[in-house]
Amino acid sequence: MIDPLAIEYPESVAASLDAFFGYVHLPALSKHIHEVVLAFTLYQGLFLLGPFFGSFVSSYKTLNERTRLNFDIHIVSQVQCLLILALAFPAFFDPDLQVDHIFAYSPYGGLVYAFAVGYFAWDSYISIKYVKWFGLGFAVHGVASLSVFLLSFRPFLMYYGPIFLYFELSTPFLNIHWFAGHLPAGTISEKLQLVNGILLLVTFFSARIAYGFYSVGRLLFDALAVIDKMPLWLPTVVLSSNLTLNCLNVYWFSKMIKAVQRRIKSAKTGAAAPDLLTEEEDVKGHKME
Predict the structure, then answer these.
(1) Are 208 and 256 spatial neighbours (Cβ–Cβ below 8 Å)?
(2) What domain of life does the UniProt record list for this protein's source (predicted)?
C-alpha cells in the first residue's frame, strides 16, 4: 500500500538521511521522518490548545494545575487514539505486510508507525517535562514505548503494528470516563456514563487482555520460526515488553472489577456510588496502555 504523505527529499538530504538512519540501524525511518515530525507537532499543538478547549468548560479555570494539565493531555490522547485507530485499520489488509510477519516493510505501514513514534516522542517529552507531577515511572514508560516502536523501522514487526495499536480500542472510553469525572455534573448523563463504563470494560478485556495475550503467542510462534535471522535481544525486548504490558493490563482490569463491585454494593445500600477507577483517577488515561 502507498504512503499518502510520502514526499521526495532533495537528493543530498535523502542521502544524508539514508546514511544517518542506516548507521543507527533504522533505515526505513529515513522515508518517514517528516511524518514523525508532523505527528509530534500535531500533538504538541493540540496540547498547547488545551486551554482553548477548556474555555468551553465552565469549571476548567477552577481546576488545580495538575488536573488542568491532565485535561490537556486527555484532549491529545483522545485525538491520538481515534486517529491511530483509523490509520491502523487499512494496514490489516496491506498485502506488503502479509508477505513476512517479521521483516516485511510497507510504505503505508511506515506511515502508521511514524504517527505512533511521533506520539510516543511527544509523550516522552511531556512525561519528562512534568515528571514532578507524574513520577519517574511514567517517563520511563514513555521512553520505553518510543524505543520499541522505533525498532519497527529496522524494519521489524511492521505486520504486528495494527495488532498492537488496536490495543488502543478501550482508550476513547477511558478518556470519556475521565472527562465525566472532571466536567460539571450533568455534562455527561448518567446513562451515557453507564454505557461508556460497560464499553470500557468490554473493550479493555477483549482488546488488551484476550487479544493481547493471543497476539503475544502469535508473535512468539512467528519469531521462533526465524530466530536465527535476527539478534536474540530484538525479539526478547519486544516480547518481554508486550508480556509485561499485558500483565499490567490484567492488574488494571482487576482494579476496574473491584470498583464495579463497590458500585453494586453502594447501590444496594443507597450510598453514593464510587467512581469506576477511584484509585487511578489522577493517572493519565493514556498511560493505562
Answers:
(1) no
(2) Eukaryota
Q: Is residue 3 part of a domain?
A: no
Distance, CA of 253 to chain centre: 17
CA distance 153 to 163: 16
Q: Structural domain of residue 80, as residue ranges?
A: 11-287
Judge whether 5 lies within some domain: no
Q: Is residue 6 part of a domain?
A: no
pLDDT of residue 101: 94
User: How far is it, in rounded angstroms, from Cα 126 to Cα 66?
Assistant: 13
d(CA 213, CA 5): 33
Whether 1 is in a domain gets the answer no
Residue 179: its pLDDT value, please?
Answer: 87
Residue 84, C-beta contacts closer than 8 angstroms, at least 6 positions apart = 112, 115, 116, 119, 165, 168
Q: How many C-beta atoms surround the C-beta of residue 201 within 10 A?
A: 18
Q: Which of 112, 157, 150 is nearest to 25 (CA)?
A: 150
Convert the pLDDT of each residue in 166-191 to its tens digit: 989 999 999 998 888 777 777 778 78
Q: What is the pLDDT of residue 287?
A: 46
For the chain, the domain total comes to 1
Amino acid 273 reads A
Which pLDDT tens digit goes with each residue over 74-85?
A: 999 999 999 999
Q: Whats the size of the chain, residue-wise?
A: 289
Let me know: does 158 contact 219? Beta carbons within 8 Å.
no
